[in-house]
Structures are given as C-alpha cells and as structure tokens.
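Researcher: Quick one. two chains, 620 residues in total.
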Amino acid sequence: MTLPMTVPAPGLPARVRIHEVGPRDGLQNEKALVPAAIKAEFIHRLAEAGLTTIEATSFVHPKWVPQLADAEELMRLIDDVDARLPVLVPNERGLDRALALGAREIAVFASATESFAKANLNRTVDGALEMFEPVVAKAKDAGVAVRGYLSMCFGDPWEGPVPISQTVSVSRRLLDMGCDEISLGDTIGVATPGHVRELLATLNEAGIADDRLAVHFHDTYGQALANTLTALQHGVTTVDASAGGLGGCPYAKSATGNLATEDLVWMLDGLGIETGVDIGRLTAASVWMARHLGRPSPSRTVRALSQKET
Amino acid sequence: MTLPMTVPAPGLPARVRIHEVGPRDGLQNEKALVPAAIKAEFIHRLAEAGLTTIEATSFVHPKWVPQLADAEELMRLIDDVDARLPVLVPNERGLDRALALGAREIAVFASATESFAKANLNRTVDGALEMFEPVVAKAKDAGVAVRGYLSMCFGDPWEGPVPISQTVSVSRRLLDMGCDEISLGDTIGVATPGHVRELLATLNEAGIADDRLAVHFHDTYGQALANTLTALQHGVTTVDASAGGLGGCPYAKSATGNLATEDLVWMLDGLGIETGVDIGRLTAASVWMARHLGRPSPSRTVRALSQKET
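Model:
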C-alpha cells in the first residue's frame, strides 16, 4: 500500500487525538437508514483500526433524526467496544436514556449564532444554553465527561461572517457551565487559516487553553485540512473527523461533509504525528460502509487507496 | 455570493502569483477532445477573471497528446489575451514551432526519478536533461523565459519515496542549464507538509532561493491545499493550480487531479493574500468548461459556489 514518507515538522504536537464522528454526525447526514447491526459492526471496525474516541449516536427525539432512532439498540451492540463512545444528548430526558445505557461521555450542541440556534433548536442562543445547563450539571454529577459542540463558529448561512467575540463568548459560557471541551465547528466550511488562528488566539486570551479545544472542519470549500494544520500549528491536539468523509456526498453539487478521517491520518502519518490509527484498516472500514450506503466514499485518500488495493 | 471572512496570518506573502495550468495540464488529462475555439474562449475567460499566467498548450507530438494537437490553431486564437501564456515544448522542433507562433515563455519537463523519465520520456534522467539543454539555450537566446517542470519530487509509483537529495540535484541542473523557475511537482499526490518544508529548506541550503521555485500539488490524497499553505509559510510565492480542478475526475475512484484554482483562491482570499483573481468570474469560467466536458467540476469550491448561484 502507498504510504507517505514520514518527515516531521517543527512546532507540531507529537500526538493527536482524533474524535471520530462518522457513526453519529456522518450517518445522521446520510439519506440511507443504516441498520443498527451495521452501525455496530462499523464502530467495532473503527475501534479495531485504532480510533480511541468514536461518537456513537444521538439521543435526540427520533422524529428529528430518524437515522439515529436505534440509539438504545446500538448502545447494547457496542458495549464491548474498547474506545471512548460519547453520545449526543439534547435534554435531560436524552441524558437519562444515555446514562441508563451506560454512556460515560456525552455532548451537547450549542450555536454561536441566533439564526442557527433558531433553525436547529428552535431557541435563542441563551435559551439553548439554559436548556443545556441542567443536562451538563446532571452529567457532571454522574461523573460523565461533557463535550460542548459549538456550531457556526466562523460563518453562518443567514448571518454571514460570525464575529470572533461572539464565538468566544458562547465558548466561555459552555465551559463555565461545566463542559470539559469545546468542539469549534465550521458548520458551513467557510473558515480559512488566518481566521482559525485568530479565533484560537482570541480564545487563549480569554483564558481558554488549547487543551480544552477541539476543531471540527467541513470540507465544503476544500479548506478542512489546511485549517486543521493551522490549528495543530497553534497547539490544538484534538481533531474531529468522519471516517470515509461520511455525511458528505460525492455526487451532490456541494459536498458539505466533514473532514475525512483518512485524509487527516494521511497528513498526520506523513508528519510523524502519532494517532494510533492504522490507515489501511480504517480505509477498509470506510470502503465496507460505503458499500452498505451504495456509493463511493468522498474521501480522496479512501478512493486512492481502495483503487490500488482492489 | 458566499465569501470567506478576510483574516490575515503572520509569515505569509502579501501576494501570490497563480500559474494556471488548466488549459494545458488539465485538458491534457481529460478524455474529451475539446475544440480549439472552446479552449480559446476558456483562456479568454480565465484572463478576464484575473489570472496573469495561463499555460496555454503543448508542442508535444500530437501522437502523444492528441488533446493538444491543435496548438497552432489555439495560439492564433489567443494572441490578443492579456496574460503570460507559457507553452510546453519537448524538443527543438517544438520550440521552433512555439517561437514561430510568438510564444514568449516555454516550459520543459524533467523527472526526479529514472522510472518516470523512462515512462514519460523514454529516456534516463540524464538523457532527458541533455535533450532539454539545447532547447533551453535556444529559448534563452530568443529572450524567452523558461520554466522547468520537475515531476515526482516527493514520491514515484514505481520507486516509492523519492530522496530529497535526488530532487535537489535535478533542480540544480535545470537551473544551471538556464531555467528561470522550477515547478516542484507532486505528481502522485503523496506529499505532506513536513516533507514539503524539508525539501524547500534543502533547496534553499543548496543555494536555490524561494523566488526561483513554484509548487505543483496534486490532490490524490486530499493534501494539496495543506501542502500549498506550508510552501507559502516557507516563502514560496508561485503556486500552480488548475481551474475547476481540470484533469481530475470526480467519478474516478482516484481523483488524481491538480489542486483546483478556486479552492486555492478561496484560501488566499480568506488570508487577504492578493492574487488579482475574481473568484466568482473564475468559478463561472470553470462551470462553463465543465458543461462542455459534460461532467461536474471536482473542485469543492466550484461545486459549493455554483450550487448557490444557480
């Protein structure tokens, strides 16, 4: 198998933790309804490929996300997986369901903009934070780690460019409420490296250290990996990515998917940055899932490596 | 139209010259034979979008590259274009044809590896350099600028990783022969940022300054833009790219195309780096060409912007 030559660069972390979002964020955005048994097999394969954090599912009401309506069944099928398996919860009821099934990590999802808070949660930014406050408190009481997703950190389809101060302010409130980590989402993929660097620097100035931050880039304009490199150069060591680029469609005019985990691992392997991930096994897992979805992976690395292997 | 927020970053050039390779390198790798009139219209549109260097065609024997067999006709159709219009020439006969049609810039194409020199030119690395020596000398005598393309600078499909010393050595010989600029090609797309940085640093140590260098990345593994950012951080200010990602196929399992010019301009616009290019007009030109080719552009920026516009 073709692999990159390993040549480290100065000023980069020795190790990066990949927060794999394919089974949740990826499959949530696929049209196909994937059976729980297939999802469970996929999560097993991702863990066997060396991923240590795999976001498994969401305890949102099935009416809103029918793709993940099988959360209970799935949790039982993956209780032997040797990885951190965070799940998304929208409210106390979702948290109770997740805790009852043994979830040890949860994530809540806030918005940096009023327009998206309204569209996604039918609430104001403040209203959403108030909704999450008791959820986070109860999770912390139960000894469960909490991640705060923050959408629209760079731009918003209704509001345009998002002021950095606005993203910093909501990040601060999520941390103050008890979140252990903030995942900074470029939900519409408009970020560029200077913007990434400036946001991270401003978060640092506001007292939020890089080790409380993760980056979550979308490849809508092809910028996800360059932005990720910028975040690593800044000092961030947790990166969200989606195996096989799940959630982006290779045939849609606009591929709005997450950064593909394989494209990320290719770069990190080349830089000699440890992830624990075996890119061959990861690619095989993504090819396997792409077959179930009946379409090729949008990840360039998956396409290149699977062409050579088959 | 959605545009990135402009946030500069330190340590980057104020201006980048894009060496547009779509009409030559891009169309050469498309299956479709595009009529000269369409190519000419495309080049006019690219110049109107603000591109100042547009590689127009190749004076290689039509037997080898039937896609560009109309070089003479095309040159006459674009003699009013207000841009630098380099053309590829393989030998003295090609040079004579190009000069007779008024070419003011040419490019020769060498290989950093023996395997690719053999496959592409049916010569050894030395044999190819010897073939180009009189071409470069004659071009310089005619006051014509010469670019040296160097393929397989990072990895080679037959030989694997290419030693940096080998790439540096052939670069040195191309410059010594009279080339004004070397375009460092990652022909199979395997480079990663540490490798890019190390090659550039080693070239500098060998006395080759960044202003004699251009970078030419392929997106086979999704690394092209991150590698380009690394080259800009190092000090390179000339970047090769292909409008609409021409030459890469969105349906092939492996998209081996060049970096898409639009994805590059999106990043440079976001960083406030001047290129003179209007991304809207450039995208419109690529969408227009994609219609002639009967398939969507593989550029993520083109797909995202054209979805919003139409």
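Chain A has one domain: 21-304.
Researcher: Thanks, that's what I needed.
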